[in-house]
Design goal:
It is a single chain. The protein is an alpha+beta fold and 571 residues long. Helix content is 32%, strand content 21%. The chain has 15 helices and 24 strands. The longest helix is centred in the middle third of the chain and has 24 residues, at 219-242. It is an enzyme of class 1 (oxidoreductase). Pfam families: Amino_oxidase (PF01593). Its EC number is 1.3.5.5.
């Protein structure tokens, strides 16, 4: 087993005891001019009419991290690295393509980064004033960050791991012990662990972790579950892909897997993977995750980013893009995709009246936003029409700052197994930038959220506190008679990652569209990591690869357009 190693970080801001007077104003960040807003609201709690001010002084933070696992020798890591090298080693273009990309989430950032690596000039446009898309974050009036979601970086994310290496920021990932930790609803305040031995290879280490845990599943249940999984182990990828037509619940019934396996394991897993329950989630999603986690020794090992994603991950990508001649522009919202008479893209029209032209165009916005931008002339083309099946799932991310340090937690991601909550973490422990020795800040994913996304923040916090009272029975009470809330932030995303329901797979588009010079990027596009950060980064690489491969055709097309514009009109 690995022993913990110590890492340190100097930051400013040491006074953690906070009280507040008054009410912060509501902030809203709009994903699209046609799209529902991200509602972000903070509660300010009164404390005897006094306002405490943050004092700024150097603070030495010490967190217990675990060594970065040796990922470089895995097949998937090597394949991801080979794809990255394609861009660096490709022939330098005689005239770089100017590629206009809409959306600066991970997919758009990845597309722009790898196009720049290949010698082209990306112009990346972001509608909002913040980078990251579904990993965006904001700083409140006290200097505290709140995020769109609780983001975990797995060992089984080879393209993301390569990206961190290419940017020289591998040390920004805080690796945790190789475990999966589940709350025990029937034993409030207790947890059950799946510990993966470092001395055993995959998949033996995963099997050992399951066999050693006798709190969640009985031996007969484990045996029946293993027998149910045999076809997936023997059938490989063709079998996995064939299960897209079944929900997790339907598959389990078909395979004779006991209902308790669903209750004890798959409800939590489904909500963590796609924010929905097993009676909706495609079994293909579960099997892909199990395959990655069980076939790679460190596949299920988790890391937290050491700070807020826009600054700690997105800005290094932006700096890389700009250093190679690319551009990144915030507050640049696409209003309309204007077309030429032949149906190809003429330019992107922005809401401020400007028009952005290029040799190629990419939409890296979420699928729900892109569907609003699809020109009428394209709407009956099968490639675009099939997108109607892909719909983003609502999710809510909750941050609560308490007046004390909670003890019943771990320096890790925790599966709540709550009917309302998915996963959570005490970010004052798991993340260097958010570290606080005196106060806990819980970040929680509220899912499924379709029945809650329209409710008030107060209702959501009240419901969250009721669930937390079960997870922290000695420390938290729903009426705050124990730990007190200092403040909270609720971030609602009405349309997050696409909902991985059965029969979605045939509707996922390739990155190269049937429209010459137009491409898509996003985790909903065709790639093997489904709806995830890894899927977003891989989609961007595949999109950039398609554009580089089409260089000659795109360059010739641009020359013809330029020549036609220069032809004088006969009088």
């Amino acid at each position: 087993m690995d022993t913990g190693c110590l890492s340190s970080m100097n930051i400013n801001g040491v006074n953690q005891a906070r009280s507040f007077v008054g009410q912060f104003s509501t902030q809203k960040c709009f994903a699209s001019s046609h799209h529902a807003s991200f509602a972000v609201k903070s509660l300010v709690v009164r404390n005897k009419g006094r306002r405490s001010h943050r004092r700024h002084s150097a603070l030495q933070i010490v967190c217990k991290d675990f060594p970065r696992p040796p990922l470089e020798s895995t097949i998937n890591y090597l394949e991801a690295g080979q794809l990255s090298s394609f861009f660096r080693s490709s022939e330098r273009p005689s005239k770089p393509l100017q590629v206009v990309i809409a959306g600066a989430g991970l997919a758009g950032l990845s597309t722009a980064k790898y196009l720049a690596d290949a010698g082209h000039k990306p112009i990346l446009l972001e509608a909002r004033d913040v980078l990251g898309g579904k990993i965006a974050a904001w700083k409140d009036e006290d200097g505290d960050w709140y995020e769109t979601g609780l983001h975990i970086f797995f060992g089984a994310y080879p393209n993301i791991q390569n990206l961190f290496g290419e940017l020289g920021i591998e040390d920004r990932l805080q690796w945790k012990e190789h475990s999966m930790i589940f709350a025990m609803p029937n034993k409030p305040g207790e947890f059950s662990r799946f510990d993966f031995p470092e001395t055993l290879p995959a998949p033996v280490n995963g099997i050992w972790a399951i066999l050693k845990n006798n709190e969640m599943l009985t031996w007969p249940e484990k045996v029946k579950f293993a027998i149910g999984l045999l076809p997936a182990m023997l059938g490989g990828q063709p079998y996995v892909e064939a299960q897209d037509g079944l929900t997790v619940s339907e598959w389990m019934k078909k395979q004779g897997v006991p209902d308790r396996v669903n209750d004890e394991v798959f409800i939590a897993m489904s909500k963590a993977l796609n924010f929905i329950n097993p009676d909706e989630l495609s079994m293909q999603c579960i099997l892909i995750a199990l395959n990655r986690f069980l076939q790679e020794k460190h596949g299920s090992k988790m890391a937290f980013l050491d700070g807020n994603p826009p600054e700690r991950l997105c800005m290094p990508i932006v700096d890389h893009i700009r250093s190679r001649g690319g551009e990144v522009r915030l507050n640049s919202r696409i209003k309309k995709i204007e077309l030429n008479p032949d149906g190809t893209v003429k330019h992107f029209a922005l809401t401020d009246g400007t028009q952005i032209t290029g040799d190629a165009y990419v939409c890296a916005a979420p699928v729900d936003i892109f569907k609003l931008l699809v020109p009428q002339e394209w709407s009956e083309i099968s490639y675009f029409k099939k997108l109607e099946k892909l719909v983003g799932v609502p999710v809510i991310n909750v941050h609560i700052w308490f007046d004390r340090k909670l003890k019943n937690t771990y320096d890790h991601l925790l599966f709540s197994r709550s009917p309302l909550l998915s996963v959570y973490a005490d970010m004052s422990v798991t993340c260097k930038e958010y570290y606080d020795p005196n106060r806990s800040m819980l970040e929680l994913v509220f899912a499924p959220a379709d029945e809650w996304v329209g409710r008030s923040d107060t209702e959501i916090i009240d419901a969250t506190m009721e669930e937390l009272a079960k997870l922290f029975p000695d420390e938290i009470a729903a009426d705050q008679s124990k730990a007190k809330i200092l403040k909270y932030h609720v971030v609602k995303t009405p349309r997050s990652v696409y909902k991985t329901v059965p029969n979605c797979e045939p509707c996922r588009p390739l990155q190269r569209s049937p429209i010459e010079g137009f491409y898509l990027a996003g985790d909903y596009t065709k790639q093997k990591y489904l709806a995830s950060m890894e899927g977003a980064v891989l989609s961007g690489k595949l999109c950039a690869q398609s554009i580089v491969q089409d260089y000659s055709r795109l360059s010739l097309r641009s020359q013809k357009i330029l020549q036609s514009e220069e032809v004088p009109v006969a009088s």
